[in-house]
Specification:
With 101 residues, the protein is mostly beta strands. The protein is 8% helix and 18% strand. It comes from Vibrio parahaemolyticus.
C-alpha cells in the first residue's frame, strides 16, 4: 500500500524502528522488538510503503496495480483479466505517478 507522506503520521513506537540497508541501496525498516516490517519512506521522501498486514482495521482503498507478476505462481491467475495495470517488476516512478495520479 502506497501512502502520500503528507497523509502519513506515526501514532506510536517510532523510537522502536531500526533500518537495514544493502550495498545495492535497498533499505528496509523493522520493529526492533518483534521484527515486523514497518512503513518505509520512499527515496524521494514523498510517499510511504505500508505493509497491509500492519493494518488493524479495514481501509477503503482500491488495487491500482499488480506488481511482480513476472514471478507469480503459475496457479495465480485470478487477476489476469481484471483490467488493472500489471508490471513484471516494480514500476518506475513515472509509471506509479501515471497510475496513482
Amino acid at each position: 500500500m502506497i501512502v502520500k507522506a503528507s497523509s502519513f503520521k506515526w501514532r506510536s513506537g517510532e523510537h522502536q524502528i531500526r533500518s537495514f540497508s544493502t550495498s545495492s541501496g535497498f533499505k528496509s525498516e523493522f520493529c526492533c522488538q518483534c521484527g515486523c516490517p514497518v512503513p518505509n519512506i520512499s527515496s524521494s521522501g514523498d510517499s510511504y510503503w505500508v505493509p497491509a498486514g500492519l493494518l488493524s482495521e479495514p481501509v477503503e482503498t482500491e488495487v491500482s496495480a499488480h506488481v511482480y507478476v513476472g514471478s507469480r505462481a503459475s496457479w495465480d491467475v485470478g487477476f489476469i483479466n481484471d483490467g488493472i495495470p500489471q508490471f513484471d517488476t516494480m514500476p518506475t516512478k513515472k509509471d506509479w505517478l501515471k497510475i496513482c495520479g
